[in-house]
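re: ur question from earlier - yeah i can do the single chain one, its not a big deal. heres the input i used so u can compare w yours
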Amino acid sequence: MLTTRFAPSPTGALHLGHAFSALWAHDVARAAGGRFLLRIEDIDGIRSRPEHVTAILADLAWLGLRWDAVIHQSQRLDAYADALDHLRARGLVYPCFCTRADIAREIAASVAAPHGSAGPIYPGTCRRLSPSVRVGRLAEPHAWRLDMAAAIAVTGPLAWHDDLAGPVASNSVAQGDVVLARKDAPASYHLAATIDDAAQGVTHVIRGADLFAATHVHRLLQALLGLPTPAYCHHPLLLGPDGRRLAKRDGAPSLAKRRLRDGDGRALADALRAQITLAKSGEPPILPA
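and the output i got, formated as tokens:
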């Protein structure tokens, strides 16, 4: 059965860009008689807040969305630990003791510092540590990174399909040795999202184009962990009337404020659906003022 999902992090209020993505995923599932799932990505114990979860549910219901099931990532930590143990046993991950300042200094010292799509990639400092040094430092705070070269050697070339971009040859090496478990969280977005999509039976992942690069990593993890590969659709990001993308960090107007100010969430949903239609035809989706 065709299954989509919307997976917000309860670290702040949803904005119209979130609603745009949620409606796209919801309507694809409903048009096919499939399932639409909600996943609360709340493993960031420092920034996740219960009040944001409550607001997310209220916002989506106000728009007229209905979901078939909801899970919380904070209740699935054992699944992430098992996957990490599996990769660790195969020698595909290594502990990283670097701070952000350490990484910035090493990258700055490199004449030809490599860059991935989301910025400078990790220079592999802790990958070069000897096994004895690693063991001796495990009492220190550390993350776990995927040894990208070793992982690709196991899987060989990979590919995935995007409904808008078409066939895509996977290029996970450009993302560097990504973090799979953070110092302050039991799993990274890469690991948790990949495992949960498989566990929830998600057949179509619909999300913003800003996560296109992450899918290269997710495709690799699927191959390493023996998980199915869903179809993908990385849609254009909803733009404001000024042509700029909507984002929490830029102070995009929240759905909660709009919900409290305006009574008709269905009308807003219809306006967003009109922009989804434009996006599918190749036009940039811009919400009118």
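Residues 111-117 have pLDDT under 50 and may be disordered. not sure if urs matches, ping me
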